[in-house]
Amino acid sequence: MTLLDFARGPGMNFALAVFVLGVLWRLVGIALLNYWRPKSEPRQGWLRAMMGGALATGTRSWPHREFIGRTGYGELLGYSYHIGLFIVILFFAPHVAFFKGLFGVSWPAMPSTWIHLIAVLTLTLFIAVLVRRVTNRVLRRLSNFDDYFSWFATALVIVTGLMTTGHIGASYETLQAWHLLSVELLLVWFPFGKLMHAFFIFPSRAINGYLLSRKGAAS
Amino acid sequence: MNREHANPGSATKREVNVDGAMRSFAKSFGALNAFRVESCIHCGICADSCHFYHATEDPKYTPILKVEPLKQAYKREAGPLAPFFRWFGLKRRVTAEELEEWQELLYDSCTLCGRCSLICPMGIDVAALIEEGRRAMFEAGLAPKELYDRAEHEQRTGTPGPSEPGYREKLEAIGREHNVPIPLNHDSVNVMLCVFSLDLDRYPKQVAALAQVMHHLGESCTFRTESLLVDNDAYYAGSREWQRSISRRLIDQAVACGAKVVIVPECGHAYTALRWEAAELYGKKLPFRVLHIAEYLAEKLAEGKLKLNKTNGGSTTFHDPCQVVRKGGVMEAPRKLMDAMGVDLREMTSHEGFGLCCTGGGGVMLLERARPLHYRAVQEKMREVDATGAERLLTTCTGCRFNFDDAREHFDWDKTPQSLLELVAENLAEE
Fold first, then answer.
1. Could you state, in order of their start, the residue ranges of all structural domains in chain A?
2. Which of A83, A95, B92, B267 has the fewest beta carbons under 10 Å from its own?
3. Alpha carbons A212 and A219: distance in angstroms, whole number
4. Window B:340-399, CB contacts with A under 8 Å
5. Touching check for A37 and chain B: CB below 8 Å?
């Protein structure tokens, strides 16, 4: 069995199993904790509160004008590389083929030249994010192993992907294997660290938005 | 870990039980708080909303950092990955030393204003976590002495401390001095009234204004000796049990006099404690409505029962009390009242739900050792007030008013904060 065979076969199966079971474990683990049901008289009925929650899932992506001067740069950086990552993951032709093999559905891919350009831009933004994390005093104070390892695991996927498409540093098969192994590292790490925010972000915004709207409070 | 501990700045010693408190705290954390903690991506944006960080640029004042030991306790003791964290030693036990260090962050440098909860891109209610943090600190025996003592006295006696003359006597004296009837201990009324202890001691005219508008409206109402004060310092200190028993005193008296409405005077923390948290601690919906006085007056205005004269106090800016407006949802009432009086309102850059805190809430003004930091933080608010060019500063929370008065004295500031309720009382129109 070659390294590529391992990465495509047992390696990927193991990583996907850890990813799925780990994500479920973490979500169910939280769901099994005790619940609290608000008993105070709401200022707004449940429908308006639900609408407030739904609204908050979208509006929190855009900084309020009171804060934009202070937070604009960080948020622009953060959202930009996320958008870059999504485009590359979802619209690069080999990735579309991979998802078709996994889920049985496919969609149109973007031209490779565009994808390469976006991937390079995304990696540049990613480096800027790391520089910001180590130079900004607040971010440096908050950061722990999870922050740096999650950054490393994600960056590794982008770097090996660019190396593979650019045929840089080794044979194409070896580069493909490295790229797949880096994806597997990311999948295995995913449930244990902050990457889980991909599953938390919208419910978290919605719940907070609902509870604040219920009170008629600012959200 | 049980040991004797002296709170920083305290004269007495209380037992510290960090392990027990952290375990108990983590187990009762609940899915909602767990969701909040698990969602944090360490983006640091919450620092940009906090007046203490603005004033110092010190990263330790980042709001989410203030609950770091509690995140640690939750992840080690109760989170879905807790066994891994314990087996592999990835999350240490929270120590008494850590909590002592965090006492300043949870009490001295947080006014529970909730502005950080509006900025978080993950939608985390950071202020709610800080409230949980204070509860854990209280359980661990690490609530600051000033707050602990007031809360303890309140839950035992209904007052934050000994008072000579008593609060009832003070209230009656205010009625006599301002020639306004003080309804006391009546039964079968529509409305139960309360006062904030600071109003009785420092702002008697505000108490008289409350009695005067109620008398003017001809409302069937009463104060009750057993629940005269609306203060709930247990909310500041972090004691759920004491907060419950203090709220319970008000609830029982409102039920006893048959009140359909309990009016919270111009007091922010009391509004949060009674309007939003009392039912949670009581375990069921309250058998009456809780209204902030501005809300009540705005309702009467809308019903046509309150008529107001136009005021001529010059240009005015209004400070939105965080607990009443941002967290409490009383967004429109103060402005409706000001509009009815023809107030020439000049809004601050940050206002309504997004307004900057007065920096004295959350019990911060009760902590002497927090004063230097507080005075650094309040200057940003003073600059916002000054930038409006307004001649008058109005608010509808005594805590905020007291804080601005303190800033006026400390900085020789030319703004004297005034009460919206007093302005209403001065402008009551006869039918």
1. 3-214
2. B92
3. 6
4. 349-350, 352-354
5. no
Min Cα distance B39 → chain A (Å) is 6
DSSP annotation of B327 reads T
B127 and B9 both lie in a single domain: yes
Residue B88 domain-assigned (yes or no): yes
Domain boundary among B82, B115, B143: B143
B314 and B344 fall within a common domain: yes
Question: Global pTM?
Answer: 0.93
- CA-to-CA distance for A93 and A109, rounded, in angstroms? 5
Determine how β-strand B2-6 pairs with β-strand B13-17.
Answer: antiparallel
Domain assignment of residue B193, yes or no: yes
Q: What is the ipTM of this complex?
A: 0.94
Q: Give B171-186 as a 3 state SS string.
A: HHHHHHHCCCCCCECC
Number of domains in chain B: 3
pLDDT in tens, A17-75: 999 999 999 999 999 998 888 999 999 999 999 999 999 999 998 888 889 999 999 99
Domain range for B382: 302-426
Higher pLDDT, B377 or B430: B377
